[in-house]
Amino acid sequence: MLEIIDVQRRYRGGRGTGPVNLRVAPGEVLGVVGPNGAGKTTLFDALCGVNEFQSGTVRLDGRQLGRRLPAEACGFLPEHSRLFPQLTARQACRFEAAMRRLDLDDTALEEQLDRFGCAGFRDTEVRHLSQGMTRRLGIACAFLGTPQVVVLDEPLNGLDVEGVLVFRRALADYLAGGGMALMSSHILSVLDELCERVVLLKDGLVAATVDVRNGGAERAYLEVFGQ
Question: Whole-model pTM above 0.90?
């Protein structure tokens, strides 16, 4: 179980997020949505250690972790790629493993690249990859080492049909093994399909939590934001 308790990060002028409380169960995808400026990116970045929460705590399986997930337990796919452009796909995967202190050999890295359809450009520098290729590589990095939690910010951006299918299969396998995911998407029907619950953020706070197992993400969004 992932528990995010009273976390907060606010900037001058009041923008940011929190206090926010969230829980994610093993095998669950929790959707997180809101308009631009709602605090979603701030929440995801701080949870994964890009920035820091100013208060609150994070627990994983009952363990008190402080104000972020540990690197080895968290795979992160930000909305905009942060892969170093001068690295090849193979090197980017190896760098991700090193940063998260994952004990993976070259064979495991090659298998990961192959699994996510990146084998054909493993020796190509990131700066020369298409948007879809870069997204596939980012997803491969996020799922590297089967972390306990993956945080996926707009994972379908730039993917072709084959890429979407690869992602959905990988996510299903990951959840079947007890993994936990937080995911945002501007395509609300995707959240209806992949999530049990969706959290709607407004001004950095949880405005509503909706059970979407029978659909309803779009309806709830319209009710909260009136658009």
Answer: yes
